[in-house]
Amino acid sequence: MTFHFTVRDDKQIRVIIDTDADCEADDPFAIAQALLTPKFMVKAICAEHFNEAGSMERSFRTASTVVQLLNSDVPVLEGARTPLAGLHLASDEDLSPASRAILDEALSADTHPLFVLCLGAITNVAAAIKLHPEIVSRMTIIWIGTQLPGNDEEAIREFNSGNDVEGANLVLTSGANLWLVPYQVYRTMNVSIAELQCKLADAGAIGEFLFDNLVKYNDSDFAFWTSGESWSLGDSPAVGLAMKHDCGEFHYAPAPLVKPDSSTAFIPSRPTIRIYDSIDSRFILEDLFAKLTLFARG
What we know:
Layout: E1 13-19, H1 26-35, E2 40-47, H2 55-69, E3 76-77, H3 97-106, E4 114-118, H4 123-131, E5 140-144, H5 159-162, H6 165-172, E6 177-181, H7 183-186, E7 190-192, H8 193-200, H9 204-218, E8 230-232, H10 237-243, E9 250-254, E10 256-258, E11 264-266, E12 272-276, H11 281-297
Parallel strand pairs: 1-2, 1-4, 2-3, 4-5, 5-6, 6-12
Antiparallel strand pairs: 7-8, 9-12, 10-11
Helix pairs in contact: 1-2, 1-11, 3-4, 4-6, 8-9, 9-11
């Protein structure tokens, strides 16, 4: 793919993508966009579980498919098979290949800033931090997860934090430079399926895969919660914010506590993190469509 522009070396960043790529249709879009972004030096894609037997392996296979369709050589690595509570972590040898890659990249002498984009449960990051808390100062974590405290009648089970509550709270209290995109914000990444059909029609094999994968999921019984002909590409804000940190409004506040039911509460004594209040969905979506089209043109 040829861009008629370059990104200066001092503006490039190292990126690790941590993804539950097979749980539904969002993650493959975010993975593809990240791999096609010149600003990103993508070091690894880490497969996350989604608290089902075999889910990490399914995420590994789906992420690998996206990598292959984009002719990329970025490694896809197996992560934890269970939430943090189910892991035995006595030494580095107990870390999954994914957690080990996060640890190694954080400890690297490379001076390019490291961003870890977390698109699901945050177990792989939590495991690395649990054994090596010193790495929190050496990376920025962008997490699509949690929900803000609000009206109990509007409360939902937030999928990503709910799939590893212990891991979520470990990262939230770790003191990491954490940029949080909660449910109330990531659900606003709205796009119609008709627009996806139009915009992906000229995007070749990767566009066909992304569209067909989404339509298949949308037609399944697992998508009972969708409205029918629209989607929220809720994982894509992690890519947009790593590209442009002010691609949305944010504030700073104490990290929320995630409760067992995935609802949250604010506790003043907890570490301060960045919490996004909005994202620029059109900037992110149009960038995605443009990069897929340029890739297909070769």
